[in-house]
Amino acid sequence: MANRHEVAVVLGTRPEIIKLAGVVRTLGETARVIFTAQHYQDDLSDVFFRSLGLPQPYLSLAGIGGASRGMQIAQGVDQLVQHFETQRPHLVIVQGDTNATSAGAQAANYCGIPLLHVEAGLRSYDRDMPEEINRKVVSVMADVHCAPTVCNANNLLAEGILPAQIRVTGNTIVEATWDAIPNAEVSSAVMSTYGVDGDDFILATIHRPENTDSALRLAKILRELVALPYPVIFPVHPRTAARVREFGLDHLIDRLRPVLPLDRTTFLTLARSARLLISDSGGVLEECTILKKPLVVVRKSTERPEAISTGFAVRVTADEGILDQVSRILADPGLCEVLKRVPSPYGDGKATERIAGIATAMVRGEMPPFTDLDSLGLEYEQPYVYQ
């Protein structure tokens, strides 16, 4: 029988918590949640953990939230190494590509503790993205890589990772999204609160530095959102709000329907009902394939090409503009019906079960055989050729 707290799960941001909540619940008392507080906010307090059925973190690191990227990673590594040296786990799990992910991976490596990387193998090949550097650093250190898709596994193989170290699991975002979609009564209340009915609106989120740190680029995006033929609900990220004030673009924001950042239930309710989505978020790229909604992703590169290759999303840069792509989507009234029949490329809703099983096997010193891709019931295009 597994011992208590022998699997250290290092988390630092809301997406990590959401995506690994099911794994932590499945591992039960075996799991030791360590919260780096990379993005500490009141809504990431103990109440948020409890809302996902998670225990209070076993350990919360100090002095990391609000620090620079370098300091977050350095302080995270230092505090985690100290903890691992006094309370050594049998396994460390990290998720994705955050500073917490990098710190957790490095601390495990320095202490000689096996490392399991969840959401491994994503690549944008854009070195300007800090997340890309974090992903590649962790891949060098991981003992086992849980790749969401065959495309991700192929990326790892191309970098020299051994096949025996890779497991294609799907992405836990599938079941996490299914679990978070509210019932009809709650959904109706959300729609009423935001004054929308049916799909007569567009939901847009913009927050990445490539889109917000240039006054010309941000103004162009906002003008194009204003020009769309449907009302645009626009949750305003703190970074975006600061740039709007700095660049004097309030007159454009005011012509949209700006709202405060949304909790997950509200966002998914609106996204599921919207005519289409516009975003630069990696998470929305995954969620659109689960909600079966078309997405215009405003980025110069993406580490999630599967959403594009399966027809859910189209990528444009801010300089290229979004109007043409939005017009094309709106001109195809049957698109949403087509998308309803397309399986999400991110899995079948069993990734949590697979990842927890792999973690348990690693703790026992066992490893299941390399995943039989055909047995997963997932549909992918492979190999994916990057343009």
TrEMBL record:
Residues 31-358 form the UDP-N-acetylglucosamine 2-epimerase domain. This is UDP-N-acetylglucosamine 2-epimerase (Non-hydrolyzing). Keywords: Isomerase. SUPFAM superfamilies: UDP-Glycosyltransferase/glycogen phosphorylase. Pfam families: Epimerase_2. Transmembrane segments: none annotated. The keyword Transcription regulation does not apply. It comes from Kitasatospora kifunensis (Streptomyces kifunensis). GO terms for molecular function: UDP-N-acetylglucosamine 2-epimerase activity. Its EC number is 5.1.3.14. PANTHER family: UDP-N-ACETYLGLUCOSAMINE 2-EPIMERASE (PTHR43174:SF1). Belongs to the UDP-N-acetylglucosamine 2-epimerase family. The keyword Isomerase applies. CDD domains: GTB_UDP-GlcNAc_2-Epimerase.
